[in-house]
Amino acid sequence: MCGRFALYSDPFTLARRFEADAPPELSPRYNVAPSQNIPIVRDEGEKRHFALARWGLIPHWAKDIKIGYSTINARAETVASKPAFRNAFRHRRCLIPADGFYEWQVIPGSKIKQPWFIVLVDREPMAFAGLWERWRRPEGEELESCSIIVTEANEIMRPIHDRMPVILAPCDWDAWLEPEAKDAGGLQGLLKPYSAEGMAAWPVTTKVNSPRNDSVECMEALG
Fold first, then answer.
1. What homologous superfamily is domain 5-219 in, according to CATH?
2. 11-57, pLDDT tens digit by residue?
3. What is the C-alpha separation between 103 and 120, in angstroms, rounded?
4. Which residue is catalytic, options 2, 94, 146, 218?
5. Residue ranges of domains in the chain
6. pLDDT of 133-179, one tens digit each?
7. What is the pTM of this model?
8. Using an 8 Å Cβ cutoff, are 126 and 99 in contact?
9. Is the CB of residue 133 less than 8 Å from the CB of residue 92?
10. Residues 214/197, Cβ–Cβ less than 8 Å
11. Active site residue: 19, 25, 46, 103, which one?
12. Would residue 77 show up in a list of annotated catalytic residues for this protein?
């Protein structure tokens, strides 16, 4: 799964990386948690655009916003068929920028899990495969929300956790964002583990366990 990540690249770097209009003013974030607003990248015609969406997808048919707490991730194996995600998978795909993400490793004989921070070896911002949805509150106000797609772990992640977010290579971004894409099988083929050779990971402090802690210390290597 993916339950926390970091995004600290400046707006200029993000605009260059994603070939998009500059994102809204963002403060560096080192411990992004579900239910918070996060930047997403969408194809809106002639150019990619950034938008803000609540992390935890709320299907258009949902009666309560609380469903978002169980939809922060969508499994690659069932995203095309699960009612909460299938409509967004067909019509509303996005990229979710991150500089790195956290995962927790079970330690035999211990009740405390060891958090790890995972990045790309070139330290460029990564792009999670995401979905977004638009939901209308009972009062009439619209809310946009999103989910991160996860898949089986690669070689670097497997000792830490059995799942990881789908990280899309830049060459696949256009295909993923294409609004009128009809080839569901081709889209499903993009939802695979990223190459372990392109990733690095290190253990970090348990300060990241609390979303109240949002400083660079969360991602610093132990020792």
1. SOS response associated peptidase-like (3.90.1680.10)
2. 999 999 999 987 878 899 999 999 999 999 999 877 899 999 999 99
3. 15
4. 2
5. 5-219
6. 999 887 778 999 999 999 999 999 999 999 999 999 999 999 999 88
7. 0.96
8. yes
9. yes
10. no
11. 103
12. no
